[in-house]
Amino acid sequence: MGGDYKTGEATLIRAVRALDQGDVETIPERLERVWDTLSEYHGGSFHAAEEMLLRWLLKNMTGTTANAERVRRYALTWDILGAVFALVPLFSLAKSLADRRFINILQQTLKEIAKPAKEDAAQTNGTTSEDVEMANAPGQLESPSNPRKRKRTSSSVGFNVVAQRKIEGCLQTAEAVFEALRVLLSRCEVKSLEGLPTHRMGAEHVKSLFSFSATEAMEILVPVLTLCGLAVDKPTAGLFKEQSSWLSTFNAIWELHLQGSDDATEVATHLSHPGARLLGKLTGVPQQVSVGIESATQERWVRDLRRFLNRNLILPARAAFLNKDSQGIIKTAVSMCSVSAPICFPVLFDLVTRSPREFGGNTSIKGYESWVQSVFDAMLHAASVEQAIDSKKGMAAIRSIMELAAARNAALTAPSLRKVCKEYALRADGDDWSLLLSIVKLNPDVFLLSDEGKELLNKILEKTRNTESLSEGDSEKAGHFIVLLADGYAQARDLTSFVKTWLEYLVPADPKAGLQSLWAQKELADTVSSLLQSSLNANQLADLVSWLSAQPATAARTYILGSISSGISQEEFIDAANMSSFKGVFAEKVSKKDPPSLSACRWEIAAKTLGKGTLEEAIEVWTQVGSDLKKTLKKSPIQQEDTFAAFKCCVATWLANHPGAKHEEEAAKLVCSFLERLGKSSDAMEVDSDKPTGAITNKTYLSWILSDSPLLFSMIVERTGELPEPIVSLLKPNEAEDITSFDPETLQTEHNFNTAKLIPTLIDTIIPLVDTSKSARLNPSTKAAVQFLLESAEALDRRQRGAVMKSLMMHLPQTSDKAEAIGMDFWKPVLSLMVKLMEEPTYYEGMDFSHLEAIGRCLLKIHRRSNRRSRGDLVSDDVPKDRENFRLLHQLAIRTVKQMVHGKLEDREKAYMSNAVQVLKSQSEDADIVLRIILLRAFRTAVREPGVVKKLEEAGLDAKDLKDNALLQTAVSTITSGKWRGKGLLSGVIALEALNDLDRAAVKEGLASAVPTLLETSNSLIENGVEAGWDVRIFLANHFPDSLGSPFKVKMSLGTVNSEEDNNSSTEAVGNSALRQYVDAVVKNTDEKTKLNYLQDVLLDQYDAQDALGRLVVIDQLVSHLRGSRPSEATANFDLAKAHSILCKSLPDTLSPSASAPANFLVATETIRSLLDQSPMCMTQWNIELTLSTVSIISNTSPSTTSPPILPALCSLIEAIIKRHRQRLDGHFHLLITALQSLLRLLLTSSSLSPIVWESHAKTYSRLLTLICEPTVASVSRAKTTGLDSEKNRARRYAGQYMYFVLMQYIKLQLTECASSSSLPHGVREALEKGIYSIVRITTEDSLKIMNESMDPSGRVVFKELYKRFQMFAQWKGV
């Protein structure tokens, strides 16, 4: 080894000395030789050559000459510098860098490459754009194993200064510069400073090179941000090494500068504009744009840049404002950003509103709001200046800021919002409803508390009168504006004023026209209804209704009273406004000239009054409206909306008078007579596509009766003893279009099923809907009826079961040729219904064994049709989908035959069984062999009970041969025929399944010669991704296990798991796959050692990527069969502890982009959890620590957008350790803390998840914390106890010494990750705090003091608020 070092040193020395030989044009060749030498050189005892190389490079990079610029821009120069930085001792390195003014060279280089030439500026020296682009070819990236072992391609740019000055050349140089700086600064980190004191001294000397003032630092930092912006602006993502660390290097350089009081001002002056502009592009503020970097890089840049701007601009500016009332910093930043106001202003405002609060209590809230307001005012002033120069830029900036403020619910003052309204929203060239909507969202008081605001509101509301002048989008926003305005009035406790305004603008300008559409929207009426009882007291509501009743009788007044009537539900409000609303509407006599909409509104108010009032009030209402109601229901067209409303009012009268009140009989007769009229109308089954949505049809009446008034349904049946004719008519299909108008789910209500008289009548009505023709057409009515009967099968009596079976059997076509008209999706519910019906004694007229044959032939015909879709040698894998229907047929045949042989054999039973025996003994065609096997198997199962065969013989029926021999011969001949492709695949699989029921010895004898063929067939099917191949192997494993040899040396691809929802639920498909059944069959009769050998083979065997998921499933299933024992002391022996280690080490690979399925990680995690939970004695201390470190690594390296979400699976591993291995954490608790902190970071950065899923993950994590802080007795119990102290209390005290670190991490992440991305949703925070409170509960006062001292002021404020909530809601205060 020493000789190699000396040889490498000598080669490097020669290469370095050769640098001075030759002219400038040969520098690239000489540097290439140096680079090649460095690629194989790993350092030696002396570093003179490296220092000489460093000084030569820095010397040739110094100066303003063209050659010096070419060397500075040459990427290989900086690559060599990065390699030298890693080799030279820090003390010597610092001296050389200082002597050769490295910082000046760095500044000059960054300044040059941050200003690329335009692309059309040069095509010289034969260098084309294609040549430049080849520098980043994918095949020329560095090897990850050795960063210096790569072939440089900079010659494509080379010393051609024109190519170097282009964007691609500048970015290549930037890549090399940033990598060199990263290597240099990483060597100065504390963690890497081991060894001699001179190393630490050298690190400090290197750091001192960057210890310049903030002003001088800008000469490096500004170009860095500019280069990042150039990379983002590229049309496609560039393949740059370590690009994600560029901004981390940027932050590291800033951290080394000499801190001063004017740092924030310098950042505001120089970095606020490029930083905000870059952050806007990265985060899509104000709108999404394409970026030229990878998503992982984008995510990290956003995090780094937000953290920098927060810490060095936003928080210092806020501190200056709150402590010194100074706005200089933020005004400087706003002034610098005004050049790109539409992008930079929203970004700055976003940072301001995301920043965490610094002080607690009410002062903090007030100060925070003042700070946000000052920033908004500064941006508003700057935008007004821009507005004068470029109106579009100023308008776009304000619109984006207001939308962001509305989304964040920022507390902005009314005067500033009023200014926005006057100057930007209400313009001469058009109104901006987006801005108006944002203003009313933020602070409705803008329009309510001052005369100026009310004047603005009047201008805005006047514009709502003329809806034709508004575009569709503006009309929608205007409607939403009015709804929010109503909510604002309610918050101001002045809802009465809004109702009066509502009445004013709801009245149309033209009396003949309808109500104003924006003011008549349903959302507004519903909003006012919901606000009534919370915004007004009973007296105020009574006064409001009284005022409305005194107004002229208009449609608008009726509409508003209807909204009020809908919104009262509490008793005091009902007493105050229920009858008064009714009297206000019906004070004047109903006119025939009133439009239907007005009459409908009146009837709805009357119906609500009846539903909420007393019996006396119901009588009063009926007395007043009864005569008009009768006229309407007898004469008005059924399709009018007022007729429908009148019908509902009449039903309400019946319900109000039920049972036995004065007007019950009168109302009931009126309802029943109207239903008769409804049944006789020509619209009984009208399904008119030309009718507008919401038009009143007979189906509207039926849907309302079934869904909104189920009590009426049962009352009608109880009164008449039968279903109303219109309902029967609506259930019947349309003869012309074959469409039924009912949804089965509307009938399957709990109330209907609990009505004893209703359900039999309903079933009798539904049964005839099943088509009994031989047309083989699948009527929608038949499908709907079958679905209803399937859900209601338990309620059918014997007569009804027979009627349904008869109808279903009559529906069968006479020949299987007609079966193509019926799809396989029809047969599954039909067969399921038949199986359910035949579970109880059922007989139908004409019942015959041939019916089962007819069903089977239909299924076979459909299967053959789907099988024809395969082309050439491709194997069609429709077998699993069709097999389910054949299994249902098998179950149906068993139940049917069992019924026939269960009791005494009468004439009909003898006839049925005679036909069955005759059919099964007859010769079967090859095409129907599947059907014959299914029926033979079912017959054998049904007559297997003792005495059944003898009973058949006494009846003159010989069924002995059908019991075993016939099935065995038929199945064996089918399997040995060798037809395993196309049409023969299903028959082979069905035959194998049937043989599992027969004697094993007979089966082995019959198929001994076919085993090699079956093994070859299974391998072929599995290679083609056909699941039936596993069925063949399962059969071989059960009957011929020796034939398999190495049973798991087979392709295990699960890429075509047959599940109708395999795209959405791959884990379910994996869990139910035939591969698991195969594993069960293989290990069924093996010992523990053999199972362990199988597991070892599968774990250590090489496999294809597409087999990864199948391999993991096999491992998981094998682990479930292993009981395990204590770990072996011999290192050569394989045991479950080693299996756990292998799985843990490979777990991160399951999340790589090359993973074949998202279920890989979940299956692997579940296997590891099973080992920890089910085999605790097999695990060693190493396994526990390895699991914890693996969880930490995955949590820290996996992005929060990983699919599937990994946090619940990782939490399950920690939970298993806590429950089963808690005692092994003694002395190793710090590993658990690290894992918990990593999981917490992953949880709090999962903002891309939906709120429901995010909250579920928070609950899972919180459960972990409570398990640690409040342990169960089982998890901490020991074989021997010491003293009187309980183990549970001891475990709590021990955890209390460490768990406060998790609490500190929670506070820190709220100030960094959550502040830089988005605030935690309320549900997530609430779920987390249950676990956080358990930490506070076990932490001692001394630990709390230590934690408090360890945090910065912002952290202490957050903890103070958290502890205050803990004392209020989570601390026990019992006696």
TrEMBL record:
Q: Which GO terms describe its cellular component?
A: nucleolus
Q: Superkingdom of this entry's organism?
A: Eukaryota
Q: Which Pfam families match?
A: Urb2
The regions listed as transmembrane in this protein's record are: 76-94
UniProt-listed SUPFAM superfamilies: ARM repeat
BP GO terms, sorted: ribosome biogenesis
Stretch list, region Disordered = 116-154
Arranged from A to Z, the UniProt key words for this protein are: Membrane, Transmembrane, Transmembrane helix
Q: Which residues form the Nucleolar 27S pre-rRNA processing Urb2/Npa2 C-terminal domain?
A: 1164-1374
Concerning InterPro entries, the annotation shows:
ARM-type_fold, Ribosome_Biogenesis_Reg, Urb2/Npa2_C
Query: What is the protein's name according to its record?
Result: Nucleolar pre-ribosomal-associated protein 2
The species this protein was found in: Podospora australis
